[in-house]
Specification:
Radius of gyration: 19 Å
CATH superfamily of the largest domain: Pseudouridine synthase I, catalytic domain, C-terminal subdomain
Oligomer: single chain
Low-confidence stretches: none
Number of strands: 10
CATH class of the largest domain: Alpha Beta
Number of helices: 6
Structural class: alpha+beta
Length: 267
């Protein structure tokens, strides 16, 4: 049967993360149970990137291998009818060649949203991270530019990170203000456990004047998580999009126009 690819969005505030947990609710569990009802057999899904407890997705990409043919709309409509309101399949397409949601990806894009005002939000309390003191966005952006390129991100990985290598290639990172929100847009070939949240924590400390702009550069050099500052909360973190080579036919988010030419050559 043809491998099926899905685009999925979810509000992570009610989940213990992407991966199956024996006694807690997970996004993977919700999707697999919903799709299994449509397929009339057990379905296992693979994702582009696992998200932690409380982390959201604007567009997670997953694939699965059904044992039965269904119309593409049946997977989306049937899947959504069996999902709770905090998860939605937004598009469905057949896979091309050897597509794999994780291993075929060239880049991932994450967005971290900080509500920067004196009062917390009643409406966005699980969708943003709140920081009451004013943040200097220009300093945060300048500090973030030290992270672009190929680096050892030991200072920005969780101590329990299971990745074999701490090295990643950062393609771009932009920090900007949108009204009372400060937004961090970040893309790399892959991310370490808690890497984005640790970067956000460092940048907020710099924006609040607690550290100098050069702190990001210093942390890359010392390679020590113990010196890397506070891990920012998961509430403001979103998996935004995943970039694949053109021949897989998956629509590209406009943010990937910022990818360097060398990264796009993997197409």
């Amino acid at each position: 049967m043809t491998r099926i690819i899905l685009g999925v969005e979810y509000d992570g505030s009610g989940f213990s993360g992407w991966q199956w947990q024996t006694d807690q609710r997970s996004v993977q569990q919700a999707l697999e149970q919903a799709l299994s009802k449509v397929a009339n057999h057990k379905v296992t899904v693979q994702c582009a990137g696992r998200t932690d407890t409380g982390v959201h997705a604007l567009e997670q990409v997953v694939h699965f291998d059904p044992k039965i043919e269904r119309d593409l709309h049946a997977w989306m409509l049937g899947g959504n009818s069996n999902l709770s309101d905090d998860v939605r399949i937004t598009w469905v397409k057949p896979a091309v060649d050897d597509f794999h949601a994780r291993y075929s990806a060239i880049a991932r894009f994450y967005r971290y949203v900080i509500l920067n005002r004196p009062i917390k939000s009643a409406l966005l309390r699980k969708q943003v991270t709140w920081h009451h003191n004013p943040l200097d966005v220009d300093k945060m952006h300048a500090a973030a530019q030290h992270l672009i390129g190929k680096h050892d991100f030991t200072s920005f990985r969780a101590q329990g990170c299971q990745s074999k290598s701490p090295c990643r290639e950062m393609y771009f990172i932009d920090v900007y203000r949108d009204g009372d929100k400060v937004i961090i847009d970040i893309s790399a070939n892959a991310f370490l456990h808690h890497m984005v949240r640790n970067i956000a924590g460092v940048l907020m400390a710099i924006g609040a004047g607690k550290q100098e702009v050069t702190w990001t550069e210093e942390l890359l050099e010392v390679k020590s998580r113990k010196l890397g500052g506070v891990t920012a909360p998961p509430d403001g973190l979103y998996l935004g999009a995943v970039y694949y080579p053109d021949h897989y036919g998956i629509a590209k988010h406009a943010v990937f126009d910022k990818l360097p030419v060398d990264a796009k050559r993997h197409d």
